[in-house]
Design brief:
Distance between the termini: 131 Å
Largest sheet: 2 strands, antiparallel
Number of strands: 2
Order of helices and strands: HHHHEE
Strand order of the largest sheet: 1-2
Length: about 170
């Protein structure tokens, strides 16, 4: 299909006058249009670079705005800008990840601290309950009345020295 269009275009070129531009005839083929545009861009870029080098400067000046150069230079600048934007986006993502990790770590530390505080409070409560139970047991032991008789065996005879009241 492409060959047929190309052959018919060549016949038209042969039949037309020598001064006519062949690109106008081949403008219906998309590949030719793309090649023509790229050729024009390269010519503009070549003219621009020659104008820079013809000034006598040994240093090549890279334009800082797209308006200063041709389309080729502006595309280079756009690529550089795109790369710097990508780097900035990656830096932002890395910062967000680091902040998220820090927040996670901080949350984990806080939960551990809260758990430790709860455990220590539970242990204190258990100790307080044990002490209360021990006090209650001691109070019960002191409150109960026992009938006791104390015997003094130092004299050899059994004498009742003290007897608790009934």
């Amino acid at each position: 299909m492409v060959l047929a269009k190309g052959q018919s275009a060549l016949r038209k070129v042969e039949n037309e006058k020598e001064g006519s531009a062949p690109f106008k005839i081949l403008s219906h083929i998309p590949e030719c249009v793309a090649v023509q545009k790229r050729l024009e861009e390269l010519k503009e870029q070549q003219k621009y670079l020659q104008s820079i080098l013809s000034r006598g400067d040994n240093k090549i000046k890279i334009p800082k705005t797209p308006n200063e150069g041709g389309t080729g230079v502006s595309t280079v600048l756009l690529v550089k800008q795109d790369n710097s934007l990508r780097r900035a986006d990656m830096k932002k993502r890395n910062i967000w990840k680091e902040n998220a990790e820090k927040a996670k770590r901080g949350q984990e530390i806080k939960t551990k601290q809260v758990d430790e505080i709860r455990r220590s409070e539970e242990q204190k409560r258990e100790e307080i309950l044990r002490e209360k139970k021990e006090r209650e047991l001691e109070e019960e032991e002191t409150d109960t009345v026992w009938d006791r008789t104390i015997v003094d065996k130092s004299y050899g005879e059994i004498e009742i020295v003290y007897e608790t009241p009934k």
